[in-house]
Design a protein that fits this description.
Length: 689
Amino acid sequence: MTAGVHTTCPYCGVGCGIVATPDGKGGAAIAADHDHPANQGRLCSKGAALGETLSLGDRLLHPEIDGQRVSWEVALDTVAEGFRKTIEEHGPGAVAFYVSGQLLTEDYYAANKLIKGFLGTANIDTNSRLCMASSVAGHKRAFGSDTVPGLYEDFELADLVVLVGSNLAWCHPVLFQRLEAAKRARPSMKVVVVDPRRTETCDIADLHLALKPGSDVALFNVLLAGLAERGAIDRRFVEQHTSGLDEALAVARTTDATACGLPSAEIATFLDWFARTDKVVTLYSQGVNQSSAGVDKVNALINCHLLTGRIGRPGMGPFSITGQPNAMGGREVGALSNTLAAHMDFGAADVDRVGRFWRAARMATKPGLKAVELFEAVRAGRIKAVWIMATNPVDSLPDADAVREALRACELSIVSEAIRATDTVDACRIRLPALAWAEKDGTVTNSERGISRQRPFLPPPGEARQDWWILSEVARRLGHGEAFAWRGVADIFREHAALSGFENEGRRDFDIGACATLDDAAYEALKPFVWGGGSDKRFFGDGGFFHADRRARFVATKARFPVNAPDGARPLILNTGRVRDQWHTMTRTGKSVRLAGHRPEPAIELHPRDAAARGLSDGDIAEVTSAWGRGVLRVHVTDSLRCGEAFAPMHWTAQVSRAGRINAAVNPAVDPISGQPELKHTPVEIRRL
Ligand code: SF4
């Protein structure tokens, strides 16, 4: 092992290994971990700049109530008493947690156990709802479990990689580097990018399908029908391991290919390459998930892999790449309001099983509210106490001004946060200082099911504490001390592992029960490992799905378009996303001057014809208005997007750029199954200021 502390990058779902060497003055030298299987010695610009983000000047270091510093005793007593009183007067449905894919698995586990097992409600949702909830629901419909079948190395082994709704080059740069290197070494490998925008990812594309926004289901239905017509069917796999093909095909065959807005020759080329290539990986991300038809998009593309039997074998399969560093750990502990711990659900048997394991005092028996509806309930006064941990919903949720209003009006609003000045901290009454990356201790799971340790290498600043400790102290004050009497993160990890193996016997994909016997030293030394799968760590290569009949399901997906369509008043479609060198609401990356240099201010990208029609030139300042709100951004004229569409990054907050906070204008429509917001399709108008 290289000298220094081996830990994991806190940004994206690639989950790169990092070696941090403290300088003894509060800083650290950051280097890539050559031994980590995810990055194998690589880092991207964000990971490499982590050493520039360790200063403490912006940190929340002491508990506060109504702007006044208080002791931990007072803060914790107030939180516990507030929850006790609210539940007593209004029932468990009047309280909620909103947590984060930035939490470590152990913190995530503690939050879920407290609210679902001891407060009696599943009103806990995570910002991962904005990231991959559609993928979770699509996996469950197809596989009977929320399982990512393949591994990162499949991108390198494939002969055709289809990237759908993913700007991999900017959002998961190390995976892009791996793909780019594989293509350079083997130029016959083909890459297809399916994205309305021509992003940097297209630099390695052999074919860019700049489809009409929201038409992904139509495209994959056309592909499914075309593959069947050409006889590109793995009949043995379909007959032995699936059901529902006839219904899915019948719907696919009715799909109008022109709905995609693509030249028919491009669709024909895509079909031809997909039909002729055995080793195909379809990687997808937020362009698929963040949609009111997100779950159908996921199933439409999975259908094509089931038809061809290309799943769970080297170089083959659908692959959901998550945005958050620990979205997958959140899925494992059941951090979504509609899931239970250890990949269990709200069926009676699972509720009973988890309740017995936890010796729950008051077990939630039904799913809770999903992120957008949760904050609507806060705004309507149905939720009277909300505790937010490690996330900034006042900027990151759609219709963001309504979220701010909701929090300001809430009777008891609590935030656990590392940073002193965020728009969510400003809106909350009780502020609890939490440890940040470099100080906290635990595990994370990356997009290929790889569990890695995140280790502390700097001392805790001020009075900041780790989230699991804060939660345990509140639980103790509510009379549940015994169930939360953990001595440290190793105790929590062992309990989490034991629950995954509890009465499992192959029923559930997630089973790390063997880790329940790790002693403290073994946990401390834990090396990255991928959970589940067969001997090669992949799932489903030879069936073995998790529906009761062990078959996968084709899902009939009828193409439908975004909920809010452009009209004469708001004729442009606003798409939101990320830029290369910023992360979420910039609380960490915003501290690096080097990173800020890439995109120093919020900008709205516009097609030259749309800009000309509005008298706008590159560099002008423009107002973006929707039915929900507005933003003010600098205009960047580019032909990298389709005429009629606009793109803006989601990172800027009121702390940095009061009017550049684009989620104030984004519509709150959600997928009816996953509850994931349609962050990529809001009708807007844009005018010069
Ligand atoms: Fe961190 Fe993701 Fe970059 Fe890896 S690719 S260094 S995990 S931001």
